[in-house]
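Example 5.3 — Peroxidase
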Amino acid sequence: MLARAPVPLLVVFFVFINAAVFIPQPVSADLKLGFYQSTCPQAETIVRQLVQKRFNTDKSVTAALLRMHFHDCFIKGCDASILIDSTSQKQSEKAAGPNFTVREFDLIDQIKTALEAACPSRVSCADVIALATRDAVALAGGPNYPLPTGRLDSLTSDVNDVNLPGPTMPVSLAFIQFFEPKGFTLSEMVTLLGAHTVGVAHCAFFQDRISNFQGSGKPDPAMDPALAGTLRKTCSASNNPTAFLDQNTSFAVDASFYRELTVKRGVMQIDQELATDPSTSKMVSSLARNESGFRQSFAAAMVKMGSLVGKGGQVRKSCRVFNPKSPVGGGARPPVASPRRPPVPNPHRPAVSPRPPVSKPRSPVVSRGAPPPKSGGKKNVPKKTHKKSTSPRRKGSKKPAKGHHSHQKKKHRKGH
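Solution (predicted structure tokens):
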């Protein structure tokens, strides 16, 4: 028995912006393979070890991290805005309904704590999510894809940015309103929805399909009757139970999800429509027959999704709160980034020997109060003089009377 009950991986991609459509750039110049090679070479190893430890006791961690990663990236880019805790002044993305059942925040905290101990202020929380998801996918039998890193953590997190439509949205509308504006092709949308090969959904989100589809009093004709009967038994409990989205290999990242769709065994309506919509049905059939093709397509789509980044950010010390008075802005990386590479020599330009440093003649050291050195060969011996006051003379003050200083000197000598 698993240590934790699986939590829904429900329509993970359908997150909208309430205001103007946000179109993050699919490629960032800051992202590159091995970004932490010089600043924190053990970063990816630390992430992998802690994800492995969690996976050994709870295989549903793959679905949970996939869901977290998607919900993060599809708001304003992969910037860890989903990790910020709400405050009494402002509700963060965590407070949005679609994110109520997002979990594994504690795993992200554990990874970040270990990274801070090894390399303080080096690895962003956004990269932690992306790397942990990649490793969890590989542990579940999916592709272990090379992942560029160098993401920054967001400076904002607003509950109002999160909006999740119902799971009955038509495939064509989902593509036009959601995937296409972010630069994804229709084929990439079908591939990314393959993440539903792991995870579960609450019965409330597909109840009508198994009993009263569109008010007909009958199950959805697009669902296998045997599956509908099984789901009715599962959902007869009063506590809104869950059902696996892939009834065949529920904890494996593979092409089984598409094979289930071809025989009407998709649990969610949006999933099943992939196999019936004329624009996507052939893609589903192709992925169902080609396991290696799915692995390659899924890896490429995940890397592309992980490259959705916004502008500006920071590297948080704690993933749950913003850094106080962050010095980073406008997309700049903090001073913890990799050191600059040495300039590449130009083969068409002859090498020039560096000029030797020009030595400047040293001026003689003169003690404060000594007269300037005389020209000539005689050695100057500074005379003892009384130090004059450097304070400015007050306006209107009179000069001392003539002979005043000589009088004081004579008196001093006489007494001495």
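Remark. The beta strands are 200-202, 242-244.
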